[in-house]
Amino acid sequence: MAAEPGPAEAARVAEVERVFREEYGRAVAVLVRAFGDIDLAEEAVQDAFTAALRHWPSAGPPPSPAGWIITTARNRAIDRLRREASRTDRQATAVREALLLRPDLLHQDQPHQGPPHPGGGPTEEEGPVRDDRLRLVFTCCHPALGTGAQVALTLRLLGGLSTAEIARAFLVPEATMAQRLVRAKGKIRDARIPYRIPYEADLPDRLRSVLAVVYLVFNEGYAASSGDRPVREDLAAEAVRLGRLLVELMPDEPEAWGLLALMLLARSRQAARFAPDGTLVLLADQDRNRWDRPLITEGQAIVRRCLRRNQPGPYQIQAAINAVHSDAADPAGTDWRQIRQLYDQLLALAPSPVVALNRAVAVAETEGPEPALALVDALDLDGYHVFHAVRADLLRRLGRDAEAVLAYEAAIAVTGNTAERAFLTRRRDGLGG
Q: Which residue ranges does the record annotate as region Disordered (predicted)?
């Protein structure tokens, strides 16, 4: 039987996991740009991390862990292409040969060099996107793919999310999401969708999907859908970074600004969302002195800028809702009527069961729990843990404790995150369940 790893080895395994969380998306993006093959890039990067798990715990991490991963993945990809002797794709052959001569193409997120072409040296890359990971987002948001496939594929490639995590984000079974990912990759391969930087004219048509991708990456970072860690700071930070790049790329797009403001205002509460022991703290119970004031100031300034533009969209409205919350010095000072009006506007612009659920929370604060419960009971969100948690809280406020216990148990059953499950369990046990 193998010996249990010591503290030093355990720390090095944790270092591999940290590098995976922080660098997976960059490594895949760099290899996709170099080889033009999603499966090849993803498998090579996964192989590199497997190799890191074998070598780093005993030998220690290299001086540049991210560079080691990218170089190892590049070598694995080249080895695989060499083994595929029957491969006739001239582009792949040219890429392979060029990379053997020009490994510098893979060292950094370089903006100026594109994949080599069969005619000779590397071509000058055209287009406005200057970041490999943002470029990957736009590539996956090609109009030949459905919106759901675009978002799911980018979450997989950019964030390294598992199929189960993406399925939870979409509120669909894991098997359904697995099929969706396979079909998306197959369509890219069979339709020969190019891995090129989108031209200026392509950007507006892809913006909606790109914003959805960045928002879901942020959500997964802000409140992880599964696992022992309540947040994935690396994903939240990456989403904000991409949001800033988007407003630089498209400064006249109000929804890009709205998304950035929404992420900044939500992230401003991060330090207050958990107690020192890791316990989840609801918005009403948070210590508002721990909120990040510079982020609030920046987010509110963007919201005011959007209001002056007077071109409302879903992200701008959600940012405005968060701005109202951030205006209140304490929970009692929250302007719930304004929040209710903003949710009315959001539901009209972007109707969805999740928006209706959030609106019901505002109704509970302005009209009471009974009319809010009637709205919640009309929704079809059985696989969404927040639906059951909101319903349980409304039942508790109405004194219907036995029903509230059952609702909490339903929420616990579909919650993948350990911290949220612990919070819901405490709430249930507080009712004698």
A: 105-128
> Total structural domains in the chain?
2
Give the closest residue to 150 by CA, choosing from 194, 96, 212, 93. Answer: 212
Residue 54 counted as domain residue:
yes
**Is residue 381 assigned to a domain?**
yes
Residue with tokens 């990912």: 181
Report how far apart, in Å, the C-alpha atoms of 9 and of each of 144, 229, 382 are. 46, 21, 42
Distant-in-sequence, close-in-space partners of 396: CB < 8 Å, separation ≥ 6 = 404, 427, 431
Instruction: Give pLDDT tens digits for 299-358.
Output: 999 999 999 999 999 999 999 999 999 999 999 999 999 999 999 999 999 999 999 999
CATH label of the domain that carries residue 377: 1.25.40
221, 232 Cβ separation under 8 angstroms: yes
Q: Look up the domain containing 90 and give its range.
A: 7-106
Could you tell me if residue 90 is inside a domain?
A: yes
pTM of the full predicted structure? Answer: 0.76
Tell me how long the chain is: 433
* Span 373-411, pLDDT tens digits: 999 999 999 989 999 999 999 999 999 999 999 999 999
